[in-house]
Predict the structure.
Amino acid sequence: MSQHVSRRTFLKSVGLAATACLLPARAETAGERPRNVVFIYADDLGYGDVGCYGATKVVTPNLDGLARAGVRFINAHSSSATCTPSRYAMLTGEYPWRRKGTGVLPGDARLIIEPGRTTLASLMKKAGYTTGVVGKWHLGLGAGELDWNKEIKPGPLEIGFDYCFLIPATGDRVPCVFVENHRVVGLDPKDPIQVSYQKPIGNDPTGKDHPELLKMHPSHGHNQTIVNGISRIGYMSGGQAARWVDEHIADTLTGKAVAFIEKHKEEPFFLYFATHDIHVPRVPHPRFVGKSGLGPRGDAIVQLDWSVGEILKTLDRLSLAENTLVIFSSDNGPVVDDGYKDQAVELLDGHRPAGPLRGGKYSIFDAGTRVPFIVRWPGRIKPGVSEALACQIDLSASLAALTGEKLGPGDAPDSCDVLGALLGRTQTGRDHLVEHAGSLSLIQGDWKYIEPSKGARMNVPTNTELGNAPQPQLYNLKDDLGERNNVAMKHPEKVKEMAALLQKIRQRSQP
Ligand code: NG6
Ligand code: CA
């Protein structure tokens, strides 16, 4: 039981989960579980950024192949329009807006998932899988005031993973080092790491004072300690030998993910592979530079597709593909200029990162959370396209169902078992879904309701429409996927009904 939420709250949430997830009888039963599960989580990849979702300017053969062999969801979501809350929801099965402190975290934040709590990882571990996470973490590490030179815990290993190899926060946040299990990789004890988000630390130059040292310049923020010619958010000193080289991040992470698969090929494993791509700073390996024609953002997509291909090739090579469930998605929608002058805007060339959707990362419009979502299990899943409403928050209940695990009271309270949809057996997913950016919205059937909000209309530096408005908004997504035509005035009863349901869901969390 968490320290923040009472048992009564949890029990109420469970009650909610029961009503939120009225679904037809499950198509799958325990005993038909996959030998392995691999969840690949891209960063900031938009609904329109992939070939199989309509992109034509950037080529993604591996993702397109995955989709051809699996189910491609067109109405699947992250829980939120930014990274930390989406990852929190994906691992805990709880809407992140129920808790304080689940917003985008600095790189020195403490772990925000309490050790001992049921997570997707602990669930899979209990079900007999060896569990590993490789890649971007961004859920905090330690219990406060972390010393990066000592044992780094609690972290993934204390919440259900057997192995971790991490970017602690994001590529644009210090410390710019990898953490493997409880230690910084390659740290020279004579050159200790110090990190601060409050004040400059040590003698490293900053982007603010030494722009002449930069190989990539910030467009907003990102002007603190310079690592590898790129200034970051936050200050760090020391750890020179341990600092990553951005050009090699994809190779390193992909290599560690492949090594995890190889090491555990004889036993069931669950791998959560969280790529750095296509988050800023976008600095792909030289072999991908210029490959998309869209600049570093497009090249990072090509690099991401390569990483996915390497994982799939490894499964093939080890004869594991047939019985491995592979799920691919993204933690939030797309953003073009997210704080570095990388020519993403100038070189778009008609590419539409959000496809037909409105908004993007940070936005309560659908591009904030409606993301690519592909599920493949050769021989078990009939390939196709699914319209089912699903969310990454549903992985807990769905994989519990798949592996025959029972969720305890209070576990994954907002997670719905949508296994039938994930396996392509039904087009019925969850009944409704709360989306989250600055404000909340609710999707149910063809309708989307966005609650009135005083928040800004635009995220000015990124040029993203946030979707906030002081009046209620109602869109019929079937007729108006691009959320252009607010029909709230025409359907006051619908607005009332959906506002009431949203309120009910929200209140369930209050003791
Ligand atoms: C913002 C950063 C942005 C990105 C984002 C988190 C600035 C000006 N912008 O604050 O670059 O790091 O946070 O992205 O610093 S996320 O995908 O991890 O949520
Ligand atoms: Ca993200």
User: Anything to note?
Assistant: The pocket of calcium ion (ligand 2) is lined by residues 43-44, 83, 279, 331-332 (CB under 6 Å). DSSP finds nine helices and 22 strands in the chain. The longest strand covers residues 36-42. Residues 258 and 314 are 7 Å apart (CA to CA).
